[in-house]
Specification:
Structural class: alpha+beta
Helix content: 55-70%
Number of strands: 13
Strand content: 5-15%
Length: about 800
């Protein structure tokens, strides 16, 4: 847990206890090498640049035009990606190397490809719409033709049946609905027209009613159902439709019918009145459909080949555009010096990265053929640096749990180191079943063994969250198996895994095993709880007492660890006031009460005493001078209890008053910017000093005193409430046993998954609360901010 100091080492130290030492850099970069320098620094990914142009809007910055240009190219690439996804293609998964083309060479091809693809899509949509219209037209010709043929056959049959009664003036060429009055008065002859088309089946009934009402019943409507759904030419979706044929009389009726068709989304198609031309029209439409199909297939093949060509280089183009956009966005954060020949950058970097950054600057100067190299200097400031921890795929999930509460202040003790062990252990204390632990282990092993494949896939929200915490779940599963063996529970069923039980029944029938108790005849069960305890009358009193006392011991131990870490923080930051007037009083107060209780628990376990610890702790305050009698666990217990009750209140005043009086001196300790400078830019350095340094805040003793008093009261009350809070380790474990027994009987296998998930989530949340509230509030401030370096390691999400 040593703190690694400065130096220009090339490799970062793996130290989670303290964040990496950081330094504030100032880089003065010539304009001609600025782009190349930022490119190399982005590959390095170890500098977090500060925005020196915060007062300017994005449109007022120097490289706004270049960013707009990159955004337009990114839009074109997103368009290509959407088109590839629609076509069922995916960008090439080959490893992407550094792009050997620049933005100028890429911009024109992207524009040409976009224009070509848009034209292909437009032509394809027109052809597809025409094809779908012809498909509907062919169906209309077939269905309506069947109606006319059936009408013709019916008319022929009627003519033959009533041929002897007809005058011979009528023939098959006479209109079907000819009124008899027209033969006598040609001026009153009515000419019928008809419209044919298709209408969505869901609207067919309403379509028929509206037609009847609008024309007052002066239409004849015939509908035929299409067996298979057809693709609508307008929407492009498959819709179930009916073919309709409407006979009407007069132009007014025709106009009404046309408007009704438009309102209902009914597509109308021309239909020849001559029956002889109908078969010819069907053949012509079939030929046109065949031609369109060939044309559409050729267009799709050409479009597929174009998208395939784009997909082979998509990742390379996308990486180049995102790199360039990131570079120009960072260049906009730099300020231009008065000569307008250099860019001035400031940013945070780890101390170990000094040599790498200097090498990157030298390489950029050489590759850009710049006559002047970049200037590298370190600034000294009182501003709090960002927090940077070197994590790997195992420790990153545990660090995320800590960061969710608050990012560690610069170089304060990081609870993530201890969370790796304490979090899964406290979870297992509540979860404690090696059968459930095996289920968790199998589930997380699936994610771990397939992590390379799953890490490259897009997962759902819950699956992605579970995959990210796979190593946390692994530790939880392993600790759950361990505590399950200690509890001797496999899905709440005990097993004699480590030998025979030490107890036997009083008689051979064991009828009184749950009422009269058992007799110990052998050695103590070697590991965990003796399986014979389960189901006996002494199970609940024994296990409740055991787990309640164990919860107190674990809680007091973890809270002591938190207070000890506050000591390491105080020593690291050289704050002797916190050592003497915060760590020491808190340590004495906590252990004079709950540490003393923990000691009594351990002595009672070791001696087998029947002392009532409730009575001991209560009367330690109410009647400290009374004789303990059978509740005396060791010689001198009365004096020890008196010392404990006296030490606690005395420490409270030590925690409040001295810190308030010493705070004024502490607030005056600040360091200002001291940039490495030459005599010729003294004025500029003074301006820099004023802009970066923060003024001294006015000291208010009353405010500091009240704040410290509140902190002291909070710790005193919190010591009691936090200790009680650790009893959830016992209470939740007991609750889980009851749920599993009842649920197993009623639901058996149907709810095993639900119970397992609910129990896991419940134990996880309670363990999270114990770390965030009971443990971390003893030492962890968590008011820092993360180190977010300028890097070309992009995520899957769009910027």
């Amino acid at each position: 847990m040593a703190v690694h100091g400065g130096g220009g080492g090339c490799c970062p130290p793996m130290d989670l206890f303290r964040s990496e030492p950081m330094q504030l850099l100032q880089l003065i970069i010539p304009m001609e090498s600025a782009h190349q320098t930022l490119a190399y620094l982005g590959d390095l990914g170890l500098i977090q640049f500060k925005d020196l142009n915060a007062e300017k809007s994005p449109f007022q910055r120097t490289y706004a035009a270049q960013i707009k240009r990159c955004a337009e190219m990114a839009r074109k690439l997103r368009f290509f990606r959407d088109q590839m996804l629609k076509a069922g293609l995916s960008p090439s998964a080959k490893s992407v190397s550094r792009a050997d083309i620049d933005m100028d060479d890429l911009e024109v091809p992207l524009g040409e490809l976009e224009a070509e693809l848009i034209e292909i899509n437009a032509n394809g949509e027109k052809l597809l719409r025409s094809y779908n219209e012809l498909v509907e037209y062919k169906l209309v010709l077939q269905k309506a033709g069947e109606f006319f043929h059936s009408a013709q056959n019916s008319a022929t049959a009627q003519q033959r049946a009533f041929g002897s009664q007809q005058t011979g003036e009528e023939s098959l060429d006479t209109p079907l609905l000819l009124e008899q009055e027209t033969s006598t008065d040609p001026s009153k002859q009515v000419k019928l027209g008809f419209l044919a088309g298709v209408v969505p089946r869901g609207k067919s009934m309403a379509f028929e009613r509206i037609l009847f009402r609008a024309t007052r019943g002066n239409v004849f409507l015939n509908q035929a159902v299409l067996e298979d759904p057809v693709i609508d030419p307008v929407s492009g979706e498959k819709v179930e439709k009916n073919v309709f044929l409407v006979f009407y009389s007069g132009e007014r009726a025709k106009n009404k019918i046309i408007k009704i068709c438009e309102a209902f989304g009914a597509n109308r198609y021309s239909f020849p009145e001559d029956l002889g031309n109908q078969a010819q029209m069907v053949n012509e439409v079939s030929e046109r459909l065949s031609e369109l199909k060939t044309t559409i297939d050729a267009g799709l093949l050409h479009r597929g080949n174009l998208l395939q060509t784009i997909g082979e280089q998509y990742e390379q183009w996308n990486l180049l555009v995102r790199r360039e956009k990131s570079i120009y966005h960072t260049l906009n954060m730099l300020s231009i010096d008065v000569t307008k020949k250099c860019l001035v950058a400031e940013g945070w970097s780890p101390v170990f990265a000094t040599k790498q950054i200097q090498e990157a600057l030298q390489r950029a100067t050489f590759d850009s053929n710049s006559q002047v190299g970049a200037i590298f200097q370190i600034l000294h400031t009182k501003e709090s640096p960002p927090t940077y921890f070197q994590t790997n795929k195992f420790t990153s999930a545990f660090q995320t749990i800590v960061d969710a509460y608050g990012v560690a202040k610069y170089q304060e003790a990081n609870p993530g180191v201890f969370t790796i062990v304490t979090f899964p252990f406290l979870f297992a204390v509540m979860f404690g079943d090696w059968g459930h632990g095996i289920c968790l282990l199998l589930g997380t092993l699936y994610f771990i063994l397939r992590e390379k494949k799953l890490s490259s896939q897009k997962l759902g929200d819950i699956t992605e969250m579970t995959f990210g915490g796979r190593y946390v779940i692994l530790m939880m599963a392993l600790f759950s198996i361990y505590t399950g063996l200690i509890y001797n529970e496999f899905f709440s069923v005990p097993f004699e895994l480590f030998g025979r039980s030490a107890y036997v029944c009083r008689d051979l029938s064991c009828r009184d095993a749950t009422t009269a108790g058992l007799i110990k005849v052998g050695d103590t069960y070697p590991l965990g709880v003796d399986p014979v305890w389960h189901g006996t009358r002494s199970e609940l009193p024994f296990l409740n007492s055991l787990k309640m006392k164990m919860s107190i011991l674990l809680g007091v131990a973890q809270m002591n660890l938190g207070i000890i870490l506050s000591y390491f923080n105080a020593k690291f930051f050289r704050n002797s006031v916190n050592v003497w007037f915060q760590f020491l009083p808190q340590m004495i107060f906590l252990n004079s009460l709950f540490g003393y209780l923990s000691l009594l628990i351990i002595i009672k376990w070791c001696t087998g005493s029947k002392a009532d610890l409730y009575h001991v702790m209560i009367y330690m305050f109410l009647s400290p001078t009374d004789d303990l009698g059978e509740n005396e666990l060791f010689a001198g217990q009365k004096n020890s209890s008196a010392c404990a009750t006296t030490a606690g209140p005395c420490c409270c005043s030590m925690d409040a008053d001295p810190k308030a009086f010493s705070s004024k001196e502490t607030t005056q300790r600040c360091q200002l910017y001291m940039p490495l400078q030459s005599t010729e830019d003294t004025l500029q350095s003074e301006a820099t000093h004023d802009s970066h340094g923060h003024g001294h805040e006015e000291f208010e003793f009353s405010e500091v005193f009240v704040h410290q008093l509140i902190h002291t009261i909070e710790f005193v009350l919190g010591a009691v409430s936090n200790t009680a809070s650790y009893l959830r380790l016992w209470a939740l474990r007991y609750n889980n046993i009851i749920i599993l027994i009842v649920g197993g009987i009623i639901f058996i296998f149907a709810t095993v998954g639900v119970l397992l998930v609910m129990e896991t989530l419940s134990a996880f949340l309670h363990a999270l609360r114990l770390h965030w509230v009971e443990f971390q509030n003893k030492f962890y401030e968590g008011d820092g901010y993360n180190f977010l370096p300028f890097s070309f390691v992009f995520g899957d999400e769009e910027e």
